[in-house]
Amino acid sequence: MRYDLVIFDNDGVLVDSEPISNTLLAAYLTELGHPTTYEESVRDYMGSAMHRIHELVEERSGELLPAEFDETFHARVFAAFRAELEAVPGAVEVLKGLAGAGVPYCVASSGSHERIRVGHRKTGLDAWFPDEIVFSAEDVGRGKPSPDLFLHAASRMGVAPERCVVVEDSRLGVQAALAADMDVYGFTAMTPEEKLTGAKGFFGSMDELPAILSL
Question: How far apart are CA 61 and CA 33, in angstroms?
């Protein structure tokens, strides 16, 4: 099937940020008295908006994270991104293929606009993503697994949900795409297939994506 819009998740799909951010998140939560391993951070928070971290910590501990939590965490993450973040291997080649074939694409991320931009500037992906095709959970009331973000992106891009395909690497992202009535393909570089239940198909390398997208 040839889709009218390809919607990319950002973290872990376009930029190789998940190891960095989950290492820092686990360390910060542990520092605050909520012991968390890297593996637990990936399991519980990968692909989610910041509000989910607050909600799960309060649900499990009965305690609120400090008011400065988001600001401090983002400062640590952005500093690490500026020092070491790289694009996911093959991501630029996929974007070149889409552009060459005239297939519209965009990014819809649980991260903030600032987080997206910091990562894109460091990796050079900003050349492929002007502001008008960058969508964040900040733009809607609820982040993934709610379908709101993907539906917002499709609406802004002028494409019906059933004509969209989502490229995701998180359980929450796959759930959000399915709830939006969109096809979704699971990127398994970090997440095993069994964690991405409901995806139409799976791929472990960006080299495989052009064939899936009929480029």
Answer: 10
Exposed/middle/buried for residue 138 (C-beta within 10 Å: 0-12, 13-18, 19+): middle
In this structure, are residues 117 and 9 in contact, taking their beta carbons and an 8 Å threshold?
Answer: no
* pTM score, whole prediction: 0.91
Among 123, 113, 195, 209, which Cα is nearest to 166's? 209
pLDDT digit string, tens, across residues 31-50: 999 999 999 999 999 988 89
The DSSP code for 89 is T
Which residue carries 């552009």 as its tokens? 99
Question: Are the CB atoms for 46 and 22 separated by under 8 Å?
Answer: yes
Confidence of residue 2 (pLDDT cuts 50, 70, 90): confident
Q: What average pLDDT does the chain have? A: 96
Q: In angstroms, what CA-CA distances link 33 with 23, 54, 72, 103, 142?
A: 16, 14, 16, 47, 27
Rounded-to-integer distance, Cα 109 and Cα 177, Å:
12
* CA–CA dist 181, 174 (Å, integer): 11
Residue with tokens 């400062």: 75
* The pLDDT value given to residue 214: 87
Give the DSSP letter of residue 200. Answer: S
Strand partners of residue 168: 186
Mean of pLDDT values over 157-164: 98
Tokens of residue 94, six digits: 């996929």
